[in-house]
Design brief:
The chain is an alpha+beta fold. 19% of the residues lie in helices and 32% in strands. It has a single domain, classed as Structural Genomics Hypothetical 15.5 Kd Protein In mrcA-pckA Intergenic Region, Chain A, CATH 3.10.290. The strands form two sheets. A five-stranded mixed sheet has the order 1-7-6-3-4, with helices on one face. The chain is globular, with a radius of gyration of 12 Å. The chain starts with a strand and ends in a 6-residue tail after the last strand. One of its GO terms (molecular function) is RNA binding. Pfam families: S4_2. This is YaaA.
């Protein structure tokens, strides 16, 4: 199973499930998120998730059918 990393931008505290699905290429548009979540078992930190607006912060692990395991990370701090 493929592993992906989605890195939050410096000004972001979280990304939503819908945004993550677009980022990994599971869907083309945000409008497809609702359908995708109804048809495919997405798992967030071991718990099934069907809400496209669920907030995912750094350290969250998401399993996306067809895309594998996705880890959300924080942007590196620039000094």
């Amino acid at each position: 199973m493929a592993e992906h990393v989605v890195t939050l931008q410096a000004n972001e505290e979280f990304i939503t499930v819908g945004q993550l699905l677009k980022e990994v290429g599971a869907i083309q548009t945000g409008g497809q998120a609702k359908w995708f979540l109804r048809e495919h078992p997405v798992v967030v930190d071991g718990t099934p998730e069907d809400r496209r607006g669920r907030k995912l912060s750094a350290g969250t692990t998401v399993t996306v059918p067809g895309s594998g395991v996705v880890t959300v990370t924080a942007a590196p701090h620039v000094s």
